Amino acid sequence: MIDYSLYLVTGRELLPQGQDYFDSLEQSLQGGVTVVQIREKNTDTSEFLDIALRSKAICDRHNVPMIVNDRVDIALAVQASGVHVGQTDMPVSIARKLLPRGTVIGVSCNNIQELDKAISDGVDYVGIGAVWSTTTKTLNKPVVGVRGVGELLRKLDGTSVKAVGIGGIKLKNLLRTLHGSVSTTNRALDGVAVVSEIVASTRPREAAAKLCEVLSTFRSGGSIIKAMRTRSEYTAGSVIDGVIQIMNCVRDHNPLVHQITNNVSIAQSANATIALGASPIMATTVQEMEDISRINGALLVNIGTLVPTAYEGMVVAGSCANAQKKPVVFDPVGVGASHFRQSSVNTLLDTWQASVIKGNAGELAALAGSNEVQSKGVDTIGSGFKDPVSFARNLARKERCVVVMSGKIDYISDGTNVAVLSNGHQLLGQITGSGCIAGSCIASHCAGAMILAQGEDKEGKLVIGDVFLGAIGGILALTISAELAALREDVKGPGTFFPALIDELFTLTPRSIQERARIQIQ
Ligand SMILES: Cc1ncc(COP(=O)(O)OP(=O)(O)O)c(N)n1
Ligand SMILES: Cc1nc(C(=O)O)sc1CCOP(=O)(O)O
Question: Which residues are the active-site residues?
Fold first, then answer.
C-alpha cells in the first residue's frame, strides 16, 4: 500500500545551480518524502533508463515506492512500483495489460469527466490539478482551485481510488490546500504532489521535512474545528463570557481593522469600528497591502461596489492575512446579482481562506449554489431556508470557516455548533449599510479574539483566535446596540437612529450583553 502523503515529482531542470540530482533526491527522502515519481520530459530513453535505475536504488534504500511518469517501458525495465499517465498518454487499459499485477497506475484529472473515466478504468490513484497556478509546467487546462478539488473528491466516495493534488503546492499554501480540498462528505486528499517546492530548494531535506510537518498536523488535528477554534464546546453562558472578554480586549488594545469595503457605507463602517474601540483603515491600493497586513488585527473584504483596483487589493490582502494567520472576514455582497460578482467571489475564495463568511440567506444560497432562496440585487426574496441551522453548518464545513447568515434571526456556525441569535431591531433594515457595519463589527471582534489568543499554539491553525466567538460578538454588539438605540426618546426614525446606534456601540456595557443577549447554541 503506497503512502501518498508527500509525493515528490522530480524535475531536474529546476535544481539550483551546483545541486546534484541524486543528492537532492537522497535528501528529499531523508526529509520524509513518501513516494517519488521520476518525470523526465526531454531525456533520451537510455538516459531516462539510467536515471530511473539509479533513482530506484536510492528509493529502495529508503523503502519508498518509485513511480515512472508517462513511460510504461521504463517502468517495466526498472520494476517500478507504478506508472503515472496523462490524458493523452497510453490508455490505462493497455498499461494495465502490459504491467505486472500489483503495479500502481495513476492518471491526471482536471475535471469531473476525466475523473469519472479514471474511476471506471480502474486506476489506483488520480493526480488532480492544477490546484494552483504553476510555473513548472505550461497548463493547457483551467486551474481547478482548492474548492474545485473538494467537489471532485466527492466523486471518489465509495471507491478505493486515492487522490493527490498537484500544481503550485507550496509550504505557504499547504494547510489551506489541505483544508480547502475537502468534500462536503469529508473526503480529503490522500497526499500532495510537489515539484519545485522541494526540487528547486537548496535544502531539499528541510523543505520536505517542513511539508511533512504541516501534513501531519493536518492529519492529527485537521478538522475544521481544530484549525479555527480554541475551545472544545460552547454553552450560551460561555459564549457570552467569551464575547465580553473580546469586547473589553478590543477597547483595551484598539486593534487596527483593515477594511476594503464598498463606497456606499465606508464612513458608517469606519464610525462603527471606532465606536467599538477599534481603529479602521480603509486602504484599497495593492501596493500597501503587505505593509498594512503586518500591523492590522483583522481584515474585512466586502465586494459591495467591486472595482478592479480594490479587487486586486483584496486578492493580495487576503493572502497576506492568511500568511500571518490573521482573521479574514468576507462579505460577498450581492454575489448572486451578476456573473462578474460570482466569478470574483470564486477567485477570491480559491486564493485565500476566509475565516468568517457573512451574508444574508440569498447571498449564501448563491455562494453555495443552492436554488432554495433567491435574491434581488443585495436583498433576499422570501422567508429563507427551511432548515437554516443545517444550511449554515454545512456551508461552514464546505468553506472551512465560520458562516454568519444574517437576517431577523442570525445563524452563526463553525461547522459543528450553530449559535442562533434573535436580537436586533427593524430600524437596522431601514438604514443603508447595516450589513456592511455588521462585517466591521465582526472583524473588530475577530481582531480582539486574535489578541486574546496571542501566545497560544499556532500549529495547524488556519487563523489565530476564536473567530466563532468573534463573529457572535460582532453580531451581538450591533444588534443589542440597535435595540438600545431604538428605545431612546430622541430616535424618531432611520435618520436619528444611525447616530444613536453609533453612541450605543460606543457605550455598550457587558451588563447589556448579559441581560439582553438572546442566544441558543444548537
Ligand atoms: C501526481 C501527478 N499528477 C499529475 C501529473 C501530470 O501528468 P501529465 O498529465 O502526464 O503531465 P506531465 O507530467 O506529463 O507533464 C503528474 N505528473 N503527477
Ligand atoms: C507536473 C505537473 N502536472 C500538473 C497538472 O496540473 O497535471 S501541474 C504540474 C507541475 C507541478 O509543479 P509545482 O509543484 O512546481 O507547481
Answer: 436
CATH T-level fold of 227-521: UDP-N-acetylmuramoyl-L-alanine:D-glutamate ligase (3.40.1190)
Query: Which residue of 14, 87, 108 sits with most ligand 1 atoms within 8 Å of its CB, as the best mutation to test the pocket?
Result: 108
Calculate the CA dihedral of residues 311, 313, 314, 318 and round it to 10 degrees. Answer: 160
Task: Return the residue matching grid coordinates 446606534.
Answer: 501
Residues above pLDDT 70, as percent of the chain: 96
Indicate the length of the chain as a whole number: 522
- Which residue shows C-alpha cell 493534488? 165
Q: Residue 338 C-alpha to ligand 1 middle, in angstroms? A: 36
**Domain 6-221, CATH homologous superfamily name and number:** Aldolase class I (3.20.20.70)
- Residues 31-71 have pLDDT tens digits of 999 999 999 999 999 999 999 999 999 999 999 999 999 99
**Cβ 214 vs Cβ 175: under 8 Å:** yes
The whole-angstrom separation of Cα 60 and Cα 7 is 15
- Note the ipTM here: 0.99
Torsion of CA 442, 446, 449, 454, to 10 degrees: -170
Residue spans of the domains in the chain: they are 6-221, 227-521
Residue nearest to atom 18 of ligand 1 (CA): 127
Residue 42 burial class via C-beta count within 10 angstroms: exposed 0-12, middle 13-18, buried 19 and up: exposed
Contact indicator for 441, 428 with CB cutoff of 8 Å: no
- What single letter denotes the amino acid at residue 57? A
* Cβ of 460 less than 6 Å from ligand 1: no
- Using most ligand atoms within 8 A of CB, pick from 33, 38, 149, 166 the residue to mutate for ligand 2: 166
What pTM was computed for the model?
0.85
Among residues 129, 133, 145, which one has the least CA distance to residue 350? 145
The cell numbers describing 326, all together, are 490573521
Q: Are strands 410-413 and 402-406 parallel, antiparallel or unpaired?
A: antiparallel
